[in-house]
Amino acid sequence: MLTPLQIDPSAITAGVNNAWILTVSFLIFFMHAGFAMLEAGQVRSKNVANQLTKNMLTWSVGVIVYFLIGAGVSTIVGGGSNPFGYITGSSAGWVGWLYGAVFAMTAATIVSGAVAGRAKLRAYVAYTVLLSAVIYPVVTGLTWAGGFLTTIGPGFQDFAGGMIVHGMGGIAGLTAAWVLGPRMDRYNEDGSVNIIPGHSLTFAVLGTLILCFGWYGFNVGTSAIFSDGGLLGDQLGRVALTTTMGMAAGAIGAGAASLGKTGKVDTLYVANGMLAGLVGITSNTNAITWIGALVIGGLAGAQLPVVFEFVEKRLKIDDVCAVFPVHGSAGVLGAVLFPLFAVPGYSVSFVGQLAGVVVIGAWTIAATALVFGVIKAMGQARVSPEHEREGLDVAEHGVNTYPEFGEPDVVPDGGQSQEIRTDGGQSQEIRTDGGEPVRTDGGSGIKMVVAMLRPEKLGDVKQAIAEVGAPSITVTNVSGRGSQPAKKGQWRGEEYTVDLHQKVKIECVVADVPAQDVADAIRESANTGEPGDGKIFILPVENAIQVRTGKEGPDAV
After folding, report:
1. Averaged over 420-435, what is the pLDDT?
2. Packing angle between helix 515-526 and helix 458-467, nearest 10 degrees?
3. Torsion on CA atoms 293, 297, 300, 303, rounded to nearest 10
4. In 76, 264, 452, 505, which residue has its Cα 20 to 30 A from 224's Cα atom?
5. Where do runs of H (alpha helix) occur along 439-514?
6. Distance of CA 206 to CAs 57, 84, 276, 409, 515, Å?
7. For the whole prediction, is pTM greater than 0.90?
8. Nearest to residue 533, comparing CAs of 488, 491, 501?
């Protein structure tokens, strides 16, 4: 056995660096959990499973394609030799490939958030294949692999992918969303915008924090622990500091911009601002001052509401998860501002940065528009209008993410209010004099008490019904509209009207217990004295049949 003094120091350096790269690669992979939660929270409930599936397939399909084709294409574009040598190479080569792969898959998964809610799964997967094989590798070949963008002045500088990964992904997402067109009901005939809120702000914020955690691997991980036998303590510390400052400043910048725009600090903008701040400093985090991190991060967050509104209302592009203002424009901003805040002695120029932004942007737009344009011409880009209405979870995967809540699409789309009839027939006269309903059941004596109530009163109502001797009930989560006034909601800084309120529907069938007693118990236990307490209906039941025994009438109840 060799003692530590007998081991070549360079071997120790290489081993520690490989272990470090593997660790941060695993951390960057965990960012996919963040993307999954962030995107799932920003789409409608009927499209959640579809979005989660896209995130899993992005990794599963993309990483294989990148191994077989993409990494080699990057080396070829960069002018390297033996481009596919890593496939049958050494352990160090495989570690390097994995590190490149997690960056590539980050760029790929950004696109899914922009085209959510209407893209066919096969179209998205086809684009992921081409992005992993060609589109992204060409970008890395022109830059990190030593391509011609490194020869312009001091060369295009992008430390950890602020423009190469995130900027490219955001631009690709915007282009794909433009080619596909907006979701149904997103815009009215006069061009005005309908707000379509996502289904879970909780998921969106959780995903944001997971991404922020993984970002330390993205940025700090790009610094090897050793280089040429020397410890890179200064660079590691600078990257950790500026990453943290940029993240914090981005949240503050977005929150302040939202406050100035709407008078409220929008939660989703704060979350998106944290990510935009991180994107803004990812290209320059190794060579800027902490003041630069605060300025660039703050500006990256502050531009969010402005750019999103421009994309939404001027360009009429339906970028569901705001991937362009979070990743695209923030990545461009960080790359272009890099020379203003570079530490003394670091070589970076406006010419080189602008050239990189223009070339990467132009290539990404052209390639993405071509791919999605061809898929669209083949009629395979979008799901049918019927499937879009139904939801991609059912249409594309045959599942319902929230089966216990009935129909998944319970959030209004911000459009014009519509009267929805649920009885299938003509208007019916409702008794208001407290009398018993007219008997039409032939004297079965069976009644059904139906109540639409506030969800928070369910526990009290269940206990009250049991106390009058009618413990058997059916409970369903529903939404509806009555005398309760509509509420105003806010999604990404814009207000929308909520005119369908969440209720619970309680059904109780009785035979030997007076229906009026049950109704009285429900009313007393559910009453708050405020509009929206709900209504109770007493209906005749023609017959009841017990499945197990075949008993009928009151005996079955």
Report:
1. 40
2. 150
3. -120
4. 76
5. 458-467
6. 21, 39, 16, 22, 46
7. no
8. 501
